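Researcher: Can you fold this with copper (II) ion in place?
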Amino acid sequence: MTTSMSLGLVLFWAALAAMPGLAGDRDERPATVNVDIRDYCDPATFNAVLGEGACVRDTTFGAITFPGFNAELGTEKSVGAWRFIPEAVKSEEDINFTLQNLGGETHTFTRVKKFGGGFVAPLNAASGNPVPAPECAQVVDGQLVPQPPSANNVFVPAGATVPGPQVDDDDHAKFQCCIHPWMRLTVNASHRHGDRR
Ligand SMILES: [Cu+2]
């Protein structure tokens, strides 16, 4: 195949894909995006400090102790094993999130305008997020009070799989955990189907 022939084919397919309704993959139903919520808490050492039931998980494949967690948080301002997977999503259509907590602690999946702290003051301080995101916490008499659960503030217990928030394809959305503020996910709208703004 000559170079000009290949180029012609590429241009043909590019033109076809750009025509609304012809690409064949446009589907008005929302896409389901699964988010894995992970942590690596060690039940013995976490529960000794945080109380029975704070961490419930199988440690066959390892665990990070409470002192280990605090050591990493102190040097890195985050703990890598506590995270959302994926951390970035491109939205080409509306999204329905499904949230699966594969860790041992409760996490939240909370839509925020701006990333900030959560409702646990020591974790905010240690992670460099001194100001709580208002969607996560209110400050009452100097104390952080968690915002109640809602469609955009979903609490996911250890081991649970629950439906998450919905995002429109023209939204740029940010989600974080209101307990561990470094756990974040960003949705970027692609505007593949034309500019709606
Ligand atoms: Cu969390």
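Model: Folded with copper (II) ion in place. The radius of gyration is 21 Å.
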